[in-house]
Design a protein that fits this description.
Oligomer: single chain
Strand content: under 5%
Helix content: 55-70%
Largest sheet: none
Number of helices: 7
Number of strands: 0
Shape: elongated
Radius of gyration: 25 Å
């Protein structure tokens, strides 16, 4: 016969914490086997977007990143959005070509970061040189703006680093962002038309 105290202990132990999940695969030790599908993971991420950012992912693909949400808020126009996307694409191409890890941890697999080995092919060197030149050209465009270093860091933080806090930036910082994006629009237009930007 068990004592009254041991019965109470057993009763308390069974009621403590969350109720036990039923109808799930378990390991022999009792732990739940986590076999989430891609669809389930995506559903959780979409629900978090709705809850945290107050945007509907299905309404627009722009809700997935900070510059897109700024566009949805009406703080940047369509041309500025495209210029920011172009800048982010060129920076990603630069980081990929030179073998440097992408600076935003949210945009990479932290366990697969590695640079290139000691030997590079002529094609890799050409690609890295072209990407570096393009990156320096775009940074030069931003630095030549009024308040250049601030403009460059603001555009970088929004477009490349994708900091969510930048969505609520003050008016002065929003002015730097739009100034940089407008400079990128102007520069890209000159490049597309085949004219020298200088």
């Amino acid at each position: 016969m068990s004592s009254k105290a041991s019965k109470l202990r057993i009763k308390r132990a069974t009621r403590a914490g969350r109720p036990r999940k039923e109808n799930v695969d378990r390991y022999p030790g009792g732990q739940i086997k986590h076999s989430e599908t891609e669809k389930e993971v995506k559903a959780v991420a979409i629900e978090a977007l709705k809850r945290v950012h107050g945007v509907d992912y299905h309404a627009s693909g722009y809700s997935g990143y900070t510059l897109g949400r700024l566009f949805m808020d009406g703080k940047v126009n369509k041309q500025q959005l495209e210029a920011g996307d172009y800048y982010a694409e060129q920076m990603a191409r630069y980081y990929s070509a030179v073998g440097v890890a992408f600076p935003s941890a949210r945009a990479q697999d932290l366990f697969s970061i590695s640079g290139f080995g000691g030997e590079t092919t002529a094609e890799q060197a050409r690609r890295a040189r072209a990407a570096s030149n393009k990156m320096m050209e775009l940074e030069g465009v931003l630095l030549r703006c009024q308040d250049g270093p601030r403009v460059k860091s603001t555009v970088f933080n929004v477009c490349v680093m994708d900091y969510e806090g930048m969505r609520t930036m003050p008016e002065t910082q929003l002015l730097w962002l739009t100034r940089g994006l407008n400079a990128l629009i102007w520069h890209r237009g000159l490049v597309v038309e085949g004219k020298s930007a200088y």
